[in-house]
Amino acid sequence: MPSISAIHSVNSGLCATFGMLFNIFLIWLIMRRSVPALRLYRCILLQTCVIDIYTICLMVAVQPVYIVVSGWNVLYQNGPVRLLPLPYSVAINLLWYFGFYFSITSNALQYLYRYLVLCRNTEITPMRYFFMLSATAVPVIFYLFMLCIICYPEQTQPIAQLNSEIFSNIHENVTITMLANSDSNSWRFLHLLYVVPYDIGCYIVIIACGIKIRRFVREKQMCSQAMKHNQQISIILVLQAILPCLGAIVGSVQVLATIALSSASAIYSTAFATLVINWVPVLNPLITILVIKSYRRVVFRRTI
């Protein structure tokens, strides 16, 4: 059976290749093949592409592998960043975390933008939207700051023991860059009192704005073309809002695995579960290309 490191390397390479191709192609479509009705939403479509490209670049550099060992949440890096000493490897790892978690916040902002522009007829300039996007990054930065304090490897932690246990189970030497005890109060409080309410708040914004937008589109007399374009944007935003939930699914798999499986099996299951997250920046542009009719026609070489 191929090693965990080899599987993550292949997975990262595939995700990076397809993700960069799809996102760059989508940027070209947005700039050159957007019909007039879609130009209003250029900024939110481009936003997803930029975040995806950022995440892909950091994913290739870090190639994070998350495992649970003896009650410890352990993250080690499989990418070239693992060769860097602390704290540089941890800092770059946090940059990858930022891209992943920021996608949730930015998706909520996309819904809010569409609600303000469509339902409230509010003019939002690109610069104003940039400031709004910057403001939504603040809660994520705070979370990463706290995560760094809680999960930074220290001499008092059983790093050597964990490394030995990992090697005895999967026969790989790893360099732990972040770890936290699952029973730690600070770990629990950070996620139960901050991360969970934060995620719930984002999805409340998404659901509330989505309902209002849907109601507005139904009540307002729009031409059939405008109606179709709004439906396409709605489908894209809904699917892209669901994709970050893969992180929650992965977390659930990891928790169940540590309870039901042996130590070696739990390590393998949790390590492989994180492979799914890397495909989010690949699926995001693919969804947009296939859903928006004018983009889809270009792919299948039809005239618009």
Quick summary of this structure?
With 304 residues, the protein is mainly alpha-helical. 72% of the residues lie in helices and 6% in strands. The chain has eleven helices and three strands; from the N terminus they run H-H-E-E-H-H-H-E-H-H-H-H-H-H.
- Which bin fits the share of residues in helices? over 70%
Distance between the termini: 48 Å
Number of strands: 3
Our estimate of the beta-strand percent is 5-15%
Q: What's the total helix number?
A: 11
Mean pLDDT: 84
Question: From the helix content, strand content and strand pairing, which structural class follows?
Answer: mainly alpha
Q: What characterizes the major β-sheet?
A: 3 strands, antiparallel
Order of helices and strands: HHEEHHHEHHHHHH
Low-confidence runs of at least 5 consecutive residues: none
- Which strand order do you get reading across the main beta sheet? 1-2-3
Pfam families: 7TM_GPCR_Srd
Keywords: Membrane, Transmembrane, Transmembrane helix
Transmembrane segments: 6-31, 43-66, 86-109, 129-152, 192-213, 234-261, 267-292
InterPro entries: 7TM_GPCR_serpentine_rcpt_Srd
